[in-house]
Amino acid sequence: MTNATASPFLPGQTALRALLAGLSPQLWAIPRIIRAQPVEAALPPNAIVVVREAEGTTVIESIADHTPSEGEPQWAQITLAVDSSLEAVGLTAAVAKALGDAGIPCNVVAAMHHDHLFVPWAQRDAAMAALQTLSAEHR
User: What are the residue ranges spanned by the domains of the chain?
Assistant: First the structure.
């Protein structure tokens, strides 16, 4: 199968069937924390994701870099190792449907080469199974 790419500036696969067949989900071993902080606060040096919004800054970081408050949710990071283009259509929807059908909430962060999923830590194994099934159905 060829690697259909819409732009030389946005590398990666755009063909949905190839993306789904090659998901190759990889579970990170350490939980993540998703938290908000004031826009003017210094960013943690080891932040995995930073999103600035009018209401504040969302930071995703490793639990190794941030001591969670009691009861603070912990998230599993699953990286879809398939090299996906930012211009790919349908990948996020297909992944969200597979996880939604399994009753697993998911927050997606798209980066230049891969999509990163953040699911509740307690549901990480079920999420991996759902993603592996989705991928196998498209091979």
Answer: 11-30+75-139, 32-73
- For the full predicted model, state whether its pTM sits above 0.70: yes
pLDDT digits over 36-48, tens only?
Answer: 999 999 998 889 9
Specify whether the CB–CB gap between 79 and 116 falls below 8 A.
yes
C-beta separation of 60 from 49 below 8 A = yes
Q: How far is CA 15 from CA 73, 76, 87, 103, 107, in A?
A: 35, 27, 10, 27, 22
CA distance 128 to 32: 16
Q: For the domain 11-30+75-139, what is the CATH code?
A: 3.30.2130.10
**Which tokens belong to 78?**
């699953």
Q: Which of 50, 31, 30, 25 is nearest to 39 (CA)?
A: 50
Picking from 135, 139, 130, 132, the residue whose alpha carbon sits closest to that of residue 106 is: 130
45-79 pLDDT per residue, tens: 889 999 999 889 999 998 876 677 788 899 999 99
